[in-house]
């Protein structure tokens, strides 16, 4: 019988890069292993702007959650593909506006979950919960999320950089549709992903895929936009990550053409 610690150690796969840990390295974090930093450096050597792409996605998360908790009035968030905690996590952003907000974080990396449970602590008025699950199992995610969220009331589903980890053979659009179908009218989808429009980025991701435990699949902006099928896009629609409701007082970095994002509501 496998000891729980041995199982976690096996899942960590510290001999191969993992996407959440590589992303953490690119964001300047320290929750990664040498194999992850090495993979990050390979990416940066081929596509030096990649760290800026990571920062742009975090800034989009902040703007999107502020919109969702503020203007849209959402009080429940389902964050799939959480990644390792950093500044301005989903619950911090939402509870800063509405302390009673309830957030469920979902990831299948054991290191992410350990850090999430230790660091992503809710306000006293709200709730944070953590689910060990893979986006490829949306029914399980929904069942676990329902322990914390009232799925008869609007939920904001955030999926940043996660659909790129799903191959076309795994039908990513169907996964998004299954999740959104279970949520009521008034729910939102906030999604972003990398595009295949830059040859240097395509090369960098190809090199990463050859050594990583998780492969990443860049797609055209049109393919990423198709994940919002059946939903009503919030202005300005599906645009480059830097162009979605930018903060007037913050100049964005110039790598906006390699990732797109959008927010849409279920009517």
Count the domains: 1
Share of residues in strands:
5-15%
CATH topology: Rossmann fold
Percent in helix: 25-40%
Return the string of H and E elements.
HHHHEHEHEHEHEHHEEE
- State the CATH class: Alpha Beta
Superfamily (CATH H level) name: Vaccinia Virus protein VP39
Instruction: Find the structural class using helix and strand composition.
Output: alpha/beta
Mean model confidence by pLDDT: 87
| Dominant shape | globular
Uncertain runs with pLDDT below 50, 5 residues or more?
1-6
Computed CA radius of gyration, to the nearest angstrom = 17 Å
**Second-tier CATH architecture:** 3-Layer(aba) Sandwich
Please give the alpha-carbon distance between the first and last residues.
49 Å
Number of strands: 8
The biggest sheet amounts to: 8 strands, mixed
Molecular structure report:
With 267 residues, the chain is of the alpha/beta class. The protein has one domain (4-266): Vaccinia Virus protein VP39 (Rossmann fold). 39% of the residues lie in helices and 15% in strands. It contains ten helices and eight strands. The protein has helices at 4-12, 19-26, 34-46, 50-69, 90-97, 110-119, 138-145, 172-181, 199-211, 221-225, and strands at residues 76-80, 102-107, 127-132, 156-160, 188-194, 232-233, 239-240, 259-265. Strands 1, 2, 3, 4, 5, 6, 7 and 8 form an eight-stranded mixed beta sheet that branches. Helix 2 packs across helix 3, helix 3 (34-46) runs antiparallel to helix 9 (199-211) and helix 4 (50-69) packs parallel to helix 5 (90-97). The longest helix has 20 residues, at 50-69. It starts with a helix and ends with a strand. Mean pLDDT is 87; it is low at 1-6.
């Amino acid at each position: 019988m496998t000891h729980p610690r041995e199982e976690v150690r096996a899942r960590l796969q510290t001999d191969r890069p993992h996407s959440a840990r590589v992303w953490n390295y690119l964001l300047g974090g320290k929750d990664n292993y040498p194999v992850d930093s090495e993979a990050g450096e390979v990416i940066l050597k081929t596509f030096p702007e990649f760290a800026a792409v990571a920062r742009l996605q975090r800034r989009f998360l902040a703007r999107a959650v502020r919109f969702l908790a503020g203007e849209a009035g959402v009080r429940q968030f389902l964050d799939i593909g959480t990644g390792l905690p950093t500044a301005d996590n989903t619950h911090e952003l939402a509870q800063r506006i509405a302390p009673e907000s309830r957030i469920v974080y979902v990831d299948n990396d054991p290191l992410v979950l350990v850090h999430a449970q230790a660091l992503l602590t809710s306000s006293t008025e709200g709730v944070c919960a953590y689910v060990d699950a893979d986006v490829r199992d949306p029914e399980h995610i929904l069942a676990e999320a329902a322990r914390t969220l009232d799925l008869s009331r609007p939920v904001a589903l955030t999926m940043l950089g996660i659909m790129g980890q799903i191959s076309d053979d795994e039908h990513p659009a169907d996964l998004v549709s299954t999740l959104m179908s279970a949520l009521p009218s008034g729910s939102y989808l906030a999604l972003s992903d990398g595009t295949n429009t830059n040859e240097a980025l395509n090369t960098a991701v190809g090199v990463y895929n050859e050594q990583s435990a998780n492969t990443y699949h860049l797609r055209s902006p049109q393919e990423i936009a198709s994940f919002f099928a059946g939903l009503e896009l919030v202005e300005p629609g599906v645009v480059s990550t830097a162009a979605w409701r930018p903060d007037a007082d913050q100049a964005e970095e110039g790598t906006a053409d390699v990732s797109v994002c959008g927010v849409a509501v279920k009517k």
